[in-house]
Amino acid sequence: xxxxxxxxxxxxxxxxxxxxxxxxxxxxxxxxxxxxxxxxxxxxxxxxxxxxxxxxxxxxxxxxxxxxxxxxxxxxxxxxxxxxxxxxxxxxxxxxxxxxxxxxxxxxxxxxxxxxxxxxxxxxxxxxxxxxxxxxxxxxxxxxxxxxxxxxxxxxxxxxxxxxxxxxxxxxxxxxxxxxxxxxxxxxxxxxxxxxxxxxxxxxxxxxxxxxxxxxxxxxxxxxxxxxxxxxxxxxxxxxxxxxxxxxxxxxxxxxxxxxxxxxxxxxxxxxxxxxxxxxxxxxxxxxxxxxxxxxxxxxxxxxxxxxxxxxxxxxxxxxxxxxxxxxxxxxxxxxxxxxxxx
Length: 343
Ligand code: NAD
Ligand code: WQD
Fold this sequence. Notes:
- By secondary structure, the chain is of the alpha/beta class.
- It contains eleven helices and 13 strands.
- The strands form four sheets. It has a seven-stranded parallel sheet, with helices on both faces. Strands 7-10 form a two-stranded parallel sheet.
- Helix 3 packs parallel to helix 5 and helix 5 packs parallel to helix 6.
- The mean pLDDT is 97.
């Protein structure tokens, strides 16, 4: 049997759905999704279909349910690889409900690795996060930097996830890559798919676009007294479609046997640190909208600055970001307007 199917977990979510689009448009794999719709809806797959003219089947099961998971693999014996996005991802929620995060993120990964072993799945790509670095002193952050204490239960689930994968490959033929995303932002360039979570957003870009749309009266820049070039925090914003493409490149890297280790880790960022005020300025420039904002108190738990060293992902994977900060802003704005139209 030719194994030609990729299982995307969290396919109805933000990054998973953009990866479905790239998989459908750029590869010949058959693709299925598992998503329990905890933070998403099936509407996302309609948007994916509108962009790609292809439909994806979603299994609305919880990955913590090993029996239901096994049934999906029974029905799909041709799965060759897994791209595992599904997780809970809110830092403040994880502080409030740590056990929910440990159960969901750790048990779902455990179940997936057990079935990976049982069904001889060759390739596994894991969504990690720059939050694994903790409070770093050295910038830009390189993959070799020793990890600091996780600042939240969410970040700890990603550290644990990476450790589980490292231990797993020691006795398994499966080839694994963990991708540490920095700050994924923006929407598909068509403006037809973007982040549409069930919970109110707390991330900068949706706050900016909601403010621009008048859904919020104003927004606050959290802290203007950091030791950065304009006093606001520095982050590495990276377009979601660039992140999505990295998964396809990473998968192909494993399939082509270009990897020298059976578990490796890569940063996904642009390498450019952008301040909050610069992000606001870029948004105002490309949209012509003046944002109503104040510079307020620092937000608890924020680091002053973090951005990625991109040498490894560029040299080994050959991945380079293609979408500029201006286009990140423009796509996010297009998507905000599309969401208003849809409601
Ligand atoms: P998202 O919430 O939009 O998507 C995750 C999807 O997984 C959701 O649709 C949710 O319903 C589903 N899901 C969660 N738990 C599940 C379970 N137990 N069983 C089945 N489905 C489940 O999040 P996203 O922004 O697309 O993030 C995808 C991955 O990337 C996550 O692992 C996240 O931790 C990681 N990540 C995200 C960011 C970011 O800023 N968006 C940054 C770094 C890492
Ligand atoms: C970006 C900057 C805020 C809202 C989070 C997770 C991290 C990773 C990516 C998953 C910060 C500032 C924000 C606002 C503001 N996710 N801000 N006003 O905190 O860098 O990273 O998402 O793995 O783990 O922690 O992203 O978008 O919340 O904030 O000034 O209303 O924007 O202080 O400097 P963050 P963010």
